[in-house]
Write a structure and sequence with these properties.
Strand content: 35-45%
Order of helices and strands: HEEEEEEEEH
Structural class: alpha+beta
Distance between the termini: 18 Å
Strand order of the largest sheet: 3-2-1-8-7-6-5-4
Helix content: 25-40%
Number of strands: 8
Largest sheet: 8 strands, antiparallel
Low-confidence stretches: 19-23
Number of helices: 2
Length: 169
């Protein structure tokens, strides 16, 4: 009887761990490459990554790139909230002052990246060139809940088999 209760407690604990892991599985990351640029940056290639929490919204929680226009900037510097569009992002960056050459934009699933010069702070820029955006696979750093449940069921089964062998000897 006591062994059965211990086994039941272990099974419940493993199920609880699996449920906690399943609820934490909402942060997603995707990488991108900007290539085939025209204009003054022709011949260059840039990379970056985005992160969002799908349980809250598709608003980005982080954005990073080695594109020179983003150097030192953060999501707080954007006038409009960028968001994930599967694949791709909507992100518009036209920093001040007027004449700043660090403006750029991503246009959702459209694989075009555009960069240029700010003519209206946070609102408008003139294109200097375009490039192609290639999106990588979405990376999910937490194991799928089904895998954790299978591991828990296997552990409970092994413990039960071990207990049976002990009682039969």
């Amino acid at each position: 009887m006591c062994r059965s209760l211990r086994l039941l407690a272990l099974a419940l604990a493993l199920s609880l761990c699996a449920a906690i892991a399943a609820s934490a599985d909402t942060i997603d990351t995707e990488t991108f490459t900007i290539s085939n640029l025209s204009g003054p940056l022709a011949g260059n290639t840039y990379t970056g990554s985005i992160t969002w929490d799908a349980s809250v919204s598709n608003d980005l929680t982080s954005f990073s790139t080695n594109f020179p226009g983003w150097a030192g900037a953060t999501l707080a510097d954007l006038a409009y909230t960028p968001y994930y569009t599967s694949p791709g992002i909507e992100l518009f960056y036209a920093p001040g002052p007027v004449g700043n050459t660090n403006a750029f934009a991503f246009f959702g699933a459209d694989p075009t990246f555009t960069y240029g010069t700010t003519v209206g702070v946070n609102g408008l820029f003139i294109d200097a060139g375009q490039g192609t955006v290639t999106w990588g696979a979405v990376v999910d750093p937490i194991p799928e809940p089904g895998v954790l449940l299978l591991l828990a069921a296997g552990a409970v089964g092994m413990l039960a088999a071990g207990r049976r062998k002990q009682t039969s000897h």
